[in-house]
Automatic annotation (TrEMBL), chain A:
STAS domain sequence ranges: 2-113
Domain of life (superkingdom): Bacteria
Organism (species): Pontibacter indicus
Gene3D superfamilies: STAS domain
InterPro entries: Bact_StressResp_Reg, STAS_dom, STAS_dom_sf
Positions with biased composition (Acidic residues): 121-136
Name this protein carries in UniProt: RsbT antagonist protein RsbS
Coiled-coil zones: none
Region (Disordered): 115-136
TrEMBL record, chain B:
PANTHER family the UniProt entry points to: RSBT ANTAGONIST PROTEIN RSBS-RELATED, RSBT CO-ANTAGONIST PROTEIN RSBRC
Name the record gives this protein: RsbT co-antagonist protein RsbR
InterPro entries noted in UniProt: Bact_StressResp_Reg, Globin/Proto, RsbRD_N_dom, STAS_dom, STAS_dom_sf
Organism domain of life: Bacteria
GO molecular function: heme binding; oxygen binding
Native source species: Pontibacter indicus
Pfam families assigned: RsbRD_N, STAS
C-alpha cells in the first residue's frame, strides 16, 4: 500500500505530500505521523502541501486532527506552501484551521518552528543568566 | 390586381429614395458617426431583405425563417450603432422612417382603393412595429454588453496589490465589496503573496463607503485565507462611523488585527518583521564629519 514518507530532521518531522490525498491515505498518514511523534519525541511537525491542488472538508479535518493530536503530545504543527485556490476552498468550506500554524514555504516554516522551540526554551536560559548575575 | 409585395417590389427604388430622404431630413442624423454611403448601403440591404421576406406572403410573424435575414441585418445594425454610441432615438428612427416611406409609396399606388390600402397599412404597421421591437432589444443588449465590459474593467483596475516594503503588501480597496469583488481581491492578494513571498498583507478599507455584516464576512474570509497561506493580515483605514456600525451589528473582529490608518498598520507590520524606522540626526553626523 502507498505511504507518505515522514522524514526526521533534528527535533522536527517533515512530511511532503506530493500526490493528491485520498481518504485512506490521509488516515494512514495521520496514524503514522502520530506514531512517529511519540517514537521520536519530536517537538514540531512540518507538513508541506505545496503540491496539493485539491482539498475537501475531510482533508481539512485531518489537518486539524493532526495539529490537535500533536499539540497534546507537545509538538507544534506548521502547514506550509498552501496554494491560493486551496486556501480559498478551505475558507469557503468554513475550515480556517484554528490551532494550525501556517507559513509560506518550508524555509519560513522551519524558522517559525525554531522560534517556537526557542520561545519554549527561553525561560530556562533567563534563569541561568539570573544565577550568573548573582554569582557576579 | 397586384399583391402588396409586388407593388412594393416594383417601387423599390422609390421607397429607398424616400427612406433615405426621411433619414437625411431627420435633425438627429449623425453624420459624424456614419457616412451617407454607409447609411445608403445599410438601408438598401435592409430593404432588399424585407421585400424578399414578404414576397412569400408572410406579413405578421417576423420570427419565421423568411425574416431571419432581415432580423439578422437589423440586429447587426443596432448592435453596431449601440457600440458606436448612437442614441436610442437615432437607432429607432432607422426602422420607423422606413415605415413612413413604405406608407407614402402605398398611398401613391392605391389612390383608388382605400379599403385595400387601409388593410395594407395595418399589416405593415404591425410588421415594422415588431421589427422596431427587435431593434430595441438588440440595441439594449449591445449597451448592456458595453456596461458589463466596463464593470469588468473597473473591478480589474480597482484591485491593485502594492508592494510597500520587502515582504509587506498593501491592498487598498475602493468601492463596495460584494462577493464577486471579494473573490477577485482574494485571488489577486493570495497570488501576489505567493509571487513575492510576503509575510504581511495590509487591507486598507478607507475607500469602502459602508461596512455591513456581509462586507465584514468577506473581510474575515480574506483574512482567514491569507492566514492559511502563512501570511498575516492587518485591516486598516477603519473610520469612526465604520467602527460604530461594526460594533452595533455585533460583528466580532477581535481575532483580526485592525488599525485606524495605513501608517499605523505599516508601523505594526514593521514591528512584526523586526524592522525599525528612525530619524537620522543630521547635526550629529555633521559634527562627526567635521
Amino acid at each position: 500500500m502507498e505511504r507518505i514518507p515522514i522524514l526526521k530532521m533534528g527535533p522536527f518531522l517533515l512530511v511532503t505530500i506530493q500526490i493528491d490525498l485520498y481518504d485512506r491515505l490521509a488516515l494512514t498518514l495521520e496514524n503514522d505521523l502520530i506514531n512517529m511523534v511519540s517514537q521520536t519525541g519530536a517537538r514540531g511537525v512540518l507538513i508541506d502541501i505545496s503540491a496539493v491542488s485539491i482539498v475537501d472538508s475531510f482533508m481539512g479535518r485531518i489537518l486539524g486532527n493532526i495539529a490537535s493530536m500533536s499539540r497534546i503530545m507537545d509538538a507544534e504543527t506548521v502547514v506550509v506552501g498552501m496554494q491560493p485556490a486551496v486556501a480559498i476552498t478551505l475558507v469557503e468550506l468554513g475550515l480556517t484551521l484554528q490551532g494550525v500554524h501556517t507559513a509560506l514555504n518550508v524555509e519560513k516554516g522551519m524558522e517559525l518552528l525554531n522560534n517556537k522551540l526557542g520561545d519554549n526554551l527561553e525561560p530556562d536560559d533567563e534563569e541561568e543568566e539570573d544565577q550568573d548575575d548573582r554569582n557576579d | 390586381m397586384n399583391t402588396t409585395a409586388q407593388v412594393l417590389e416594383k417601387n423599390k427604388d422609390r421607397i429607398l429614395e424616400k427612406w433615405m430622404q426621411n433619414q437625411m431630413a431627420d435633425p438627429s442624423l449623425r453624420e459624424d458617426l456614419m457616412t451617407n454611403d454607409e447609411l445608403q448601403h445599410q438601408s438598401k440591404e435592409m430593404l432588399d431583405g424585407l421585400l424578399r421576406a414578404i414576397s412569400k406572403g408572410n406579413y405578421d410573424n417576423i420570427y419565421e425563417t423568411e425574416f431571419e435575414q432581415v432580423t439578422d441585418t437589423l440586429r447587426d445594425i443596432s448592435i453596431t450603432r449601440a457600440r458606436q454610441g448612437f442614441s436610442p432615438r437615432e437607432t429607432g428612427s432607422f426602422v420607423l422612417s422606413l415605415k413612413q416611406a413604405l406608407i407614402e409609396v402605398l398611398v401613391e399606388q392605391r389612390q383608388n382603393d382605400t379599403s385595400t390600402l387601409y388593410q395594407e397599412i395595418m399589416l405593415l404597421n404591425t410588421m415594422l412595429d415588431n421589427l422596431s421591437i427587435v431593434t430595441f432589444e438588440t440595441f439594449i443588449k449591445g449597451r448592456e454588453e458595453v456596461i458589463l465590459r466596463q464593470t469588468d474593467e473597473i473591478s480589474e483596475i480597482s484591485t491593485p496589490v502594492i508592494r510597500v516594503w520587502d515582504g509587506i503588501l498593501a491592498l487598498p480597496i475602493i468601492g463596495t465589496l460584494d462577493s464577486a469583488r471579494t473573490q477577485i481581491v482574494m485571488e489577486n492578494l493570495l497570488q501576489e503573496i505567493v509571487n513575492t513571498g510576503s509575510n504581511i498583507a495590509i487591507l486598507d478599507i478607507s475607500g469602502v463607503p459602508a461596512v455591513d455584516s456581509l462586507v465584514a464576512q468577506h473581510l474575515i474570509k480574506t483574512v482567514s485565507a491569507t492566514r492559511l497561506m502563512g501570511a498575516e493580515c492587518i485591516i486598516s483605514g477603519i473610520r469612526a462611523e465604520i467602527a460604530q456600525t461594526i460594533v452595533h451589528l455585533g460583528i466580532d473582529l477581535s481575532n483580526i488585527k485592525t488599525k485606524a490608518t495605513l501608517a499605523s498598520a505599516l508601523q505594526l507590520a514593521f514591528s512584526m518583521t523586526n524592522l525599525e524606522v528612525r530619524r537620522i540626526d543630521r547635526n550629529k553626523t555633521n559634527k562627526l564629519l567635521r
